[in-house]
């Protein structure tokens, strides 16, 4: 098998114009892999460390030249000559060289760039598409795309407290048709917003960021858009939320501040009652980060109250970390896990988080970050893992649609062996 010959990182820009890393891995047979690292805005406090220079004379302190040099010098020296297909060993070596719990020595961004680029180089060496290399001969399940069509919270300048309102076009036979439906609803939504004199400028994840006042008004707009596009809400197209509650309260939990919802100073119980109401009134299949990163007691109550009715996804709660997921499993907290490779730092740890969640009957959703690049690794990861769900933003902004377009190509390549996850993707979590 080919050996790693060269590793080279470069400071590039992400979709918000902030610096990030892109890494090349080249093997001695000429195989090549390139990967870029995303970056969050509403980050969980327990995420692995994203190393930034803090030099105010460059990019307001957000440069990543130190992480780049950690790749080009330290990590290159360690990994030169290692078999490029030996992903577990490569990732283990990355962890050993860093040597810290939260990747603060070299930076999770440095580690992830190398880890993903090595995987892509390994796929190239095997002359396989990435999803096949990572997922094997049986990887053929296309995920339901969750399109974040209305942006609020930390991703937009409007007054909406809830960060993401997503369309989940699950009631279709193929990914292609599901994406078309979601996109047509997005366009219908634009027309509705224009008719109401509301802004159609988009937020960080490509969704609209209109000055609507609260979640019910927004969900009513989504229902109207689905119908205007000619689809049936709750049968073909569903809705999902990411509340990112850790952003509207302390990470520890209450009080939660959602003034637009009339919940200025809310307890966990009040939020849970509100979610119960929303779940009764709308075809809501998934609520992410309904409570804060460390509000484990509140999460337990939330799961007891709604865990058999709706998918409850832990993002900032679990941060793609098997230790935190294990705690959730043992305490019966949440019923699904959001997966973001840069929350943990290596591909092997990411796969371990997916495997742990799936083998325990939890739902799994692969996710982009609000700061993205044109890198499409997460699309392949969704098919490789067969997890059935991906959120990669709206049907706008190049760095968002790049992931959906990659899934269209994977479906095309798979031909008649391709399957689409459909509504069963959301059932796993509530029925487990
Ligand atoms: P982030 O947001 O990438 O800004 O963290 C995405 C999310 O909260 O799911
Ligand atoms: Zn989230």
Please, could you describe this protein's structure?
This protein is α/β, with parallel strands linked by helices and 432 residues long. 40% of the residues lie in helices and 17% in strands. It has helices spanning 65-79, 87-98, 108-125, 130-135, 175-195, 215-228, 268-281, 296-306, 322-331, 341-344, 347-359, 377-385, 398-414, 424-431; strands spanning 4-13, 19-27, 32-36, 141-142, 144-151, 164-168, 238-242, 256-258, 263-266, 284-288, 311-314, 336-339, 363-367, 389-391, 419-420. A hairpin with a 5-residue loop joins strand 1 and strand 2 (19-27). Helix 12 (377-385) packs across helix 13. It is globular. The two termini are 41 Å apart. The structure holds 2-phosphoglycolic acid and zinc ion (ZN). Residues 242, 244, 288-289, 315, 338 line the site of zinc ion.
Give the DSSP E fraction (strand runs of 2 or more residues).
15-25%
Count up the helices: 14
Mean pLDDT: 97
Strand order of the largest sheet: 5-6-7-10-11-12-13-14
| Main sheet makeup | 8 strands, mixed, barrel
Short overview:
With 432 residues, the chain is of the alpha/beta class. It is built from 14 helices and 15 strands. The longest helix has 21 residues.
């Amino acid at each position: 098998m080919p050996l790693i010959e060269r590793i080279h990182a470069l400071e590039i820009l992400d979709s918000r114009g902030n610096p990030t890393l892109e890494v090349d891995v080249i093997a001695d047979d000429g195989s090549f892999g390139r990967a870029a690292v995303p970056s969050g805005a509403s980050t969980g406090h327990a995420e692995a460390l994203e190393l930034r220079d803090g030099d105010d004379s460059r990019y307001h302190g957000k440069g990543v030249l130190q992480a780049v040099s950690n790749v080009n010098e330290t990590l290159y020296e360690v990994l030169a000559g290692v078999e490029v297909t030996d992903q577990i060993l490569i990732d283990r070596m990355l962890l050993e060289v860093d040597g810290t719990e939260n990747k603060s020595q070299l930076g999770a961004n440095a580690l992830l760039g190398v880890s993903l680029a090595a995987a892509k180089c390994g796929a190239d060496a095997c002359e396989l598409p990435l999803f096949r290399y990572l997922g094997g001969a049986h990887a053929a399940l296309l995920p339901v795309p969750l399109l974040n069509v209305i942006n609020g919270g930390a991703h937009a300048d409007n007054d909406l407290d809830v960060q993401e309102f997503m369309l989940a076009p699950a009631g279709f036979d193929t990914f292609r048709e599901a994406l078309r439906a979601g996109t047509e609803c997005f366009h219908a939504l634009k027309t509705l917003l224009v008719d109401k004199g509301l802004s159609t400028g988009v937020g960080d994840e490509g969704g609209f960021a209109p000055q609507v006042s609260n979640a019910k008004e927004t969900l009513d707009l989504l229902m109207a858009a689905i119908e205007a596009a000619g689809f049936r809400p709750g049968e073909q197209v569903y809705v999902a939320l990411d509340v990112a509650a850790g952003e509207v309260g302390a990470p520890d939990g209450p009080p939660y501040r959602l003034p637009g919802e009339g919940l200025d100073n809310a307890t966990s119980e009040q939020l849970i009652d509100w979610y119960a109401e929303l779940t009764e009134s709308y075809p809501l299949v998934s609520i992410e980060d309904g409570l804060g990163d460390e509000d484990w007691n509140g999460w337990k109550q939330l799961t007891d109250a709604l865990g058999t009715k709706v998918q409850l996804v832990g993002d900032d709660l679990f941060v793609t970390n098997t230790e935190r997921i294990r705690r959730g499993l043992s305490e019966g907290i949440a019923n699904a896990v959001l997966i973001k490779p840069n929350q943990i730092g290596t591909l092997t740890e990411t796969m371990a988080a997916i495997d742990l969640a799936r083998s325990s009957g939890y739902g799994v959703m692969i996710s982009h970050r609000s700061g993205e690049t044109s890198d499409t690794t997460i699309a392949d990861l969704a098919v490789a893992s067969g997890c059935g769900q991906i959120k990669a933003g709206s049907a706008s902004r190049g760095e968002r649609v790049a992931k959906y377009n990659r899934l269209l190509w994977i479906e095309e390549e798979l031909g008649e062996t391709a399957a689409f996850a459909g509504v069963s993707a959301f059932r796993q979590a509530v029925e487990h």
